[in-house]
């Protein structure tokens, strides 16, 4: 089993440190309970053919309350892209088509990024183009496909949003635009689920250019992210307060082992550190995996193309996730053992420990004609059934991208939306086979709950609950949350 270390030195207050130790301890117990011998199995689930979408771009799939996975396709035949849902068995349904041929694109067009499931059960996302001013939109969409455009960018407040939104602990949505703003190099904004928009920050070049990775809210309440470029450098990692004050934590140089051009999202692991990738730089010039503390201490964990002909992968454009075994999982856009099929390699799926030991799990274009997919631009999501799912930009039976799954022998768990809240706050629990659940508890404190379906439970944070694992007892066994639920004051 992978060893997971928990540290609390990033948090100075006694209350926060205690909560962080509880969170880490809960994750350690969960990782020990869910670890299983590796049984890697890749399955190509679906190939886009144009009519149902094409070329899923920077798309992390997201699990809905119905147990299905939701995502977007950047384009489609005769339209400006689609929103889809797909079962874990591979049955895809297009639930919304942007800008059908002959119609105005007031709802948006070309959704580069994926969606976020909000606490109200609806999804929110962005379109890079279209809208009332043709600079992109923020939208809300239900699982049935009813879409509402909430905001149209006008360039002064940003333009071309290319990454997914996040829902913060205050319930509002935060995101970035790749260009636009006062100097046309990107912005950070927040928007309520009802559509009230606030521009928080304009990038200027000296503090970064072109934020291409979605934000993450740290346990300290601040937001963390990356920019692809910066004046006199090769991109940044930054921290921003909820009020919009930005601090540059690291400026990439591209020299030595330092990476260059981070385009992916960061995430905060169970040890409190943040992890990400760069698409270039590093010892071999083909990208890196890095770790950075909230204080800005960066460590390059791995430099790609360390093996002959880049069989370990190259140029990761996607971020990482931490699965329930404590390991980090990600993809590379190029490299891998099938070097000639894609003129530089078709990409890989890999596992890496928090200390930097990398294992290649799958090489794309392993099947004739690349029907399994090639060149994934985004990363993975772990469904509550334990399996990993992702998309590729190219490949498939029509060469227009695929959706795939990768089983690595991990068991089922439950996921909470959100992952933190005060006593009496409403919480959605996602899972599988939840019908007949007999109890829900927050770190041992019993909660009242309602089983909505086999894949959804609604509950509230019980009075007296403390930070820790959420558990659900079902007829088939007890399921634990993938991360500890943080009970706030």
Describe this structure in words.
It is a single chain. This protein folds into two domains: 21-36 and 418-487, Immunoglobulins (Immunoglobulin-like), CATH 2.60.40; 41-407, YVTN repeat-like/Quinoprotein amine dehydrogenase (Methylamine Dehydrogenase, Chain H, 7 Propeller). 4% of the residues lie in helices and 35% in strands. The strands form eleven sheets. A four-stranded antiparallel sheet has the order 1-30-29-28, with no helix packed on it. It is globular and about 55 Å long. The protein starts with 13 loop residues before the first helix and ends with a strand. Mean pLDDT is 91; it is low at 1-37.
Helix and strand arrangement:
Blueprint: H1 14-34, E1 41-47, E2 62-63, E3 69-73, E4 82-86, E5 92-97, E6 116-117, E7 123-127, E8 137-141, E9 147-152, E10 166-167, E11 173-177, E12 187-191, E13 197-202, E14 216-217, E15 223-227, E16 236-240, E17 246-251, E18 259-260, E19 267-268, E20 274-278, E21 280-281, E22 288-292, E23 298-303, E24 321-322, E25 328-332, E26 348-352, E27 358-363, E28 381-382, E29 388-392, E30 402-407, E31 415-417, E32 420-421, E33 426-430, E34 439-442, E35 445-447, E36 449-453, E37 456-460, E38 470-474, E39 477-480, E40 486-487
Parallel strand pairs: 32-40
Antiparallel strand pairs: 1-30, 2-3, 3-4, 4-5, 6-7, 7-8, 8-9, 10-11, 11-12, 12-13, 14-15, 15-16, 16-17, 18-21, 19-20, 20-22, 22-23, 24-25, 25-26, 26-27, 28-29, 29-30, 31-33, 33-37, 34-35, 34-38, 36-37, 38-39
